[in-house]
Every structure is written in structure tokens, then in C-alpha cells.
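Request:
You are asked to prepare a plain-text protein record giving the amino acid sequence and the C-alpha cells, at your earliest convenience.
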Amino acid sequence: MDYQEGVFMSPINYWLFKSEPTAYSYQDLQSEDNHTAEWDGVRNYQARNLMRDEMKIGDRVLFYHSNAKPMAVIGTATIVKEAYPDHTALDPDSKYYDPKSTPDNPIWMMVDIKADEPLARPVTLQEIKQTPALENMPLVRKGMRLSVQPVSKSEWDSILAMSESPD
């Protein structure tokens, strides 16, 4: 644990959040009031557990555009509100509605994130796959399709460094 201004601080965790830019892009996040939005609609138990049990205020996020040409890490964000019940699961008009979720027993969670900065240049999935230091990222491992996934500090640093260098 780190010590800051009289308070013990937990170490920062790093994450990658995937979104199809036609559904919700990094630019959409930047255009929100205070550049902040709830990350709702996650309907995978493993991803939900990561959000509920592991994510905390101050954690850093790589924002990744999936199902895009090219698929790439576009920008960074910070978690500004820890997990709380995802209200879209309770709304029958929402595409994320889940009749098994109730106010007394919410199944699905969400966090709030705030856009930091777009990367100097996007870092494509192809580049990530071709970088040996990133070969263990869940993003490139077969069968790992989570919309939120952990990233190590060294992977975070590598992607940010890649964004600062020419293609």
C-alpha cells in the first residue's frame, strides 16, 4: 500500500474496457458532462465480478474500440465511482433488462469512468498482437472476450509508449 497525505492508499489497478464505437465511442465519453459516464450493460458474470470486487476509484482504464476498423486502444480514463447496481437491468425498456435482477437483489453492476486523454495515436490490435511484451494480455489470448479485463502496469506502460511512437 502507498502512503499519501496521512492515508494509506491501495495500489492502482489497470483495466481495458471494450466498446463498439457505433454503440459508445471514446468521443462519446469525452462529450459527456464532466467527461464522465456510467459503464453499464455488462452482462458477463466474470466481468461483473471484476467490476464489483476489484475496481476502485483511481484505477486507470484503456478505452478500446472493438468491432472497428482498425480495432484499437483509443484513449485513457479513470474510474471515478466504484461498483453500484446497474439500473438498466431493472428497466423493461432497456436492451440490458434482466427480469431476474431486482432492486433488493441486483445481479449486475456498473462503475463510472471519466475520460482522461485520447492517445497520441491509436494502438491497434495488430500492433498489440505483434508486441512480445503484450502476448499475455487477455485481449490477445484466445477465448478471452470480456468487455472489461485486467491489464498489468507493464502492459499499460507499453501501450502508452507505443502510442507515442510512430507506427
User: Anything to note?
Assistant: The beta strands are 2-4, 7-9, 14-19, 36-39, 60-65, 72-85, 109-124, 148-151. The first strand starts at residue 2 and ends at 4.
